[in-house]
Amino acid sequence: MRLSTVILPIYRWSTEGRKEWERAEALGFHAAYTYDHLAWRTFRDGPWFGAVPTLTAAAAATSRMRLGTLVTSPNFRHPVTLAKDLITLDDVSDGRITLGIGAGGNGFDATTLRRSDEEPWTPRERADHFDEFVPLLDQLLREPSVTYEGTFYAANEARNIPGCVQRPRLPFAVAATGPRGMRLAARYGQAWVTTGDPKLAETGTPEQSVEAIRGQLTKLGTACEAIGRDAAELDKILLTGFTPDRPLQSLDAFVDFAGTHFALGFTEIVLHAPIPDSDFAVDEKVFERIATEGLAQLGH
């Protein structure tokens, strides 16, 4: 079991930003991720910085902790330009980048680049784009030159030299719950990411959430089996904060939560760094105790 954190890109680097990432490494987190959005939910009218520059700065400010996105999506990214950014990030960080990637949702990312007479992609259209985005990105990160013409994306002799520090490319952590996303996770992922069942976040129980996640793991296993891959090869990452559980209420609450999900097969749990006066407002001292003592309580 590994314990990681998400640091939302809301801080000016010169005042709080650097300190947040340095603190995450000092607390011993396996990885620190950030969101890759143009804006997000209640944070839309406040500071919100770009994920790639933030991770570049974080790579220079840290030395051991892995870094990455949770998650990047095709909503406003193109595989060719994203590949160039990722190869650069992997170089600056000396091979510490993980790409969390998903199909995207209905939020501001889906509308900001659209004309007023354009409708956002439907869930099916997002899945269609994702189905093409991931294989092309995989190819771009593995090969020095790629030419491709698809339904949604093209690459004309796209050069990516020298490639990733991590070989054959940096790892993908694929966020998926539906059958098409699960198939992509099975084929291209080094990890699978879930936030649980969103329908249970407000009105469900922790027990219902565990059952829903167990069902997702079964679907992942089926997708892996279909291509002859052992699902145990994939890391299983749970991004917390979107289930009925409250694992950051206390150290004991975290230990119970983590133990339950470790038993399901998860290998990494990701906690949001505290943000006062938000959905992620938790006691800083409890958060630090969980970071430094939580896995030890589990025997990991």
Quick structural overview:
This protein is of the alpha/beta class and 300 residues long.
Characteristics:
10 strands, single chain, 300 residues, alpha/beta, two-stranded antiparallel sheet
Overview of the molecule:
The chain has helices spanning 13-26, 51-61, 79-92, 108-111, 123-142, 179-188, 206-226, 251-264, 284-298; strands at residues 2-6, 31-34, 66-72, 97-101, 145-149, 154-159, 172-175, 191-194, 235-239, 268-272. It has 300 residues and is an alpha/beta fold. The strands form two sheets. The chain has an eight-stranded parallel beta barrel, surrounded by five helices. A two-stranded antiparallel ribbon has the order 5-6.
Map the helices and strands.
Layout: E1 2-6, H1 13-26, E2 31-34, H2 51-61, E3 66-72, H3 79-92, E4 97-101, H4 108-111, H5 123-142, E5 145-149, E6 154-159, E7 172-175, H6 179-188, E8 191-194, H7 206-226, E9 235-239, H8 251-264, E10 268-272, H9 284-298
Parallel strand pairs: 1-2, 1-10, 2-3, 3-4, 4-7, 7-8, 8-9, 9-10
Antiparallel strand pairs: 5-6
Helix pairs in contact: 1-2, 2-3, 3-5, 5-6, 6-7, 8-9
